[in-house]
Prior knowledge:
Blueprint: H1 2-45, E1 66-69, E2 77-84, E3 114-120, E4 126-133
Antiparallel strand pairs: 1-2, 2-3, 3-4
Amino acid sequence: MEYLVLLGLAVFIFFMLRFIVSSDLEEKKAGLRKANDEAQKKAEARGLLVSCPLCSSPLAKGEDIVSKVYRPMNVPDQLCTIDGCPHCFPRPEPGLRRVCPVCGKEVPLRTGHLNARLFNYEDGKKHVVVMGCTECSKGNKK
C-alpha cells in the first residue's frame, strides 16, 4: 500500500514538473516569436524586409540566403547561384514550394538553383538580379 502511495506521488510530481517546464518553454517561444514579428515590422516599415526569391518566405534577422558567388571578387558584376533560404534549403518546410521567379516552374531541391548576377557598387552596396533557374536554362542550351 505504501508503495502505491509513493508511486502515485512520484507520478504526480513528474507531471507537475513537466507542466512547469513546458509552460516555461512556451513562454520563451512566444517571446521569441513576438520579438521576431516586431523586428520584421520595423524592417518592413523601413523597406528592409528581405524574402527568399525561391519560396517567398520572409527572412528574420540572422537568416541568410544560401548562395555561391563566383570569382573574380574585385569586379562590379559577378555570377552567382542561389540555393534557397533556411526555410526551403536543404530541407523545405512542409507546404513550401520552390518556384522560379522568372519562368514560374518548380525548382528541384537537389539539382536546381537560381542563376543570378551580383552587382557590387562602389559605395559598398550590392544588388542581385535573378536571371532564371536550372529549369529555364534547360531549353536555352545550344
